[in-house]
Structures are given as structure tokens and as C-alpha cells.
Amino acid sequence: MILGVLYMGVEAVGGWAYGSLALVADAGHMLSDAAALGVTLLALRIAQLPGDDKRTYGYHRAEVLAAVVNGAALIAIGVGVLVEAVQRFGNPITLQAGPMMLIAGGGLLVNLAGLAILHGADRSGLNVRGAWLHLLSDSLGSAGAIVAGALVWWKGWTWADPVASALIALLVLRSAYYLLKECVLVLMETAPAHIDTERVRAHLLALPGVTGVHDIHVWTITSGIVAMSGHVVAGPGHEPGAVLRAAAGCLKDEFGIWHSTIQVEPEGYEEVTLHR
């Protein structure tokens, strides 16, 4: 965060002074990076808070909400840069390629340092991955600004600056789309992509003493924490406790589901269904 905030001012002033949209876009990325890292850190701290009577699952979803904020920020930045790039095509301006490349080079070093810091972090979580995508897209922005500056200096192609900005914006939007898509799937309590609910049903039904399986629900609380609930029917002569232990063990061993809630029912049990 400190690196990003410090160099953001350098890029913003340099982009404005030397007429480089790519540098201004990169400064915007750095601002969003600092905000994203702040949101990420706050969410990680909140997620560690213990649950209570009202929030029985704890605060794990704070990480998902932070990822939504980061994804929305990426989309806002990407769209803004893309619109400005299109407008710049019709109104090219004179660029000072040397200072532009120098400042962009410093920005690239700052972003690579940020990526190195996060290299050892667990990026399987949506929250940390959102922050990492911010830094990665910003690194691409700096690299794009360097390439655009080189083309302006070598060939005099002033259009290289908005082209580089537009390409970077599209990459940012693509990353934001997939990040937000995963967040929506978690918030809609969709079954995780790596777990097939029909396979879960089939494995439970294949257990000794299980004659029926219904009301299966599998969802993600936050990245890496999967929960499941369901009903299994125990056949005559099979002890419910043994059936429960077998079902819970199957979920852990076969699917990596450690948080399961299983209701064991005798054959012929008819559950009362309440309708609105």
C-alpha cells in the first residue's frame, strides 16, 4: 500500500505533464491497488473474528464481499480508461516519450515488488486473488506504457498510447469479470465447481445401510470452506450412529467436505413439509 500510494502521485503528475493517458491510467490502477490492498487486509482481519449467536458461520463472507468491491473497482477503472482511449483516438496529442518511459519503468518496478510481496500468499481465496489481480493488471499497465512510449519515440506513433491503454483496459475487464463471477456463485450459494452433487448423492447411496438420499445442498461459505447438508435414510437393522459416521467420513475422504450436517431417517419416515 505504501509503495503504491507513493508512486501513484509520481505517475499522475507525470501523465498529466507529459500527456500520457497510459501513465494516468496506471496511476489510477495504483490508487485502486492501494484501496484494494486496504480492503483485503481489513477483510482478512474481520474474517478472523469468531462467530456468535447471530452470525453462526462467523465473518468469513467478509472476504467475498471485499473481492466484490475489488472487482467492481477493476470494472470502473477498465471502463473509464477504455472510454478515454477511444476519445483519444480522435484527438491525438503530443507525447514526451522519454519521461513517459522513465516514469512507467519506475511504476513497473513498484508493481513487481508488490507482486513479489504477495507471491507467497494463498491466492486460492477470492479476497487475496482480487488484490493480486489489481497488482498484475497494474504491472501490465506499466509495461504497456513503456511499449507505447517506445513506439512514440521510435516511430512517432502517438496512437500507440491509447491502443496500449485500450488493450490493458480489456485485460482488466476480463479479470474483473471472472473474479465477480466467482463471487456471485459463492453469494448465490451455488455448489462449488469441483463438487458434483450427483456424485455426492451416489457415494452416500452406496454406503452400507443407506437406502435413500435426499435434500442434498452443497455451498461455499468462503474460498476453501465448503458446507453440505442432506438427509440419508437408514435401512432396517442399521444403527443411525454408524450410518452417520460413514456418511461424514465419505464426505471428508471423497470430497474434502469437513463441515456437514446430516439428518439420518428411518425407512418410511415422512417429513412434514410446510408450505407458505
Please characterize this protein's 3D structure.
By secondary structure, the protein is mainly alpha-helical. The protein has two domains: 186 residues, Alpha-lytic protease prodomain-like; 70 residues, Alpha-Beta Plaits (2-Layer Sandwich), CATH 3.30.70.1350. It is built from eight helices and three strands; from the N terminus they run αααααααββαβ. Strands 1-2-3 form a three-stranded mixed beta sheet. Helix 3 packs antiparallel against helix 6. The longest helix is centred in the first third of the chain and has 30 residues. The chain is elongated and about 85 Å long. The mean pLDDT is 83.
Structural class: mainly alpha
Percent range of helical residues: 55-70%
Task: Give the helix tally.
Answer: 8
CATH domain class of the largest domain = Mainly Alpha
The total count of strands amounts to: 3
Superfamily at the CATH H level of the largest domain? Cation efflux protein transmembrane domain
Strand order of the largest sheet: 1-2-3
CATH-defined architecture of the largest domain: Up-down Bundle
Low-confidence stretches: none
Give the CA-CA distance, first to last residue.
Answer: 51 Å
Q: What is the number of independent domains? A: 2
Quote the average pLDDT.
Answer: 83
The CATH topology label of the largest domain is Alpha-lytic protease prodomain-like
Q: H/E order of the elements?
A: HHHHHHHEEHE
Shape: elongated
Largest sheet: 3 strands, mixed
As a whole number of angstroms, the C-alpha radius of gyration is 26 Å
Q: How do the helices and strands line up, and which of them pair or pack?
A:
Blueprint: H1 2-18, H2 21-47, H3 61-90, H4 97-118, H5 126-155, H6 160-187, H7 197-205, E1 210-222, E2 225-234, H8 240-255, E3 259-266
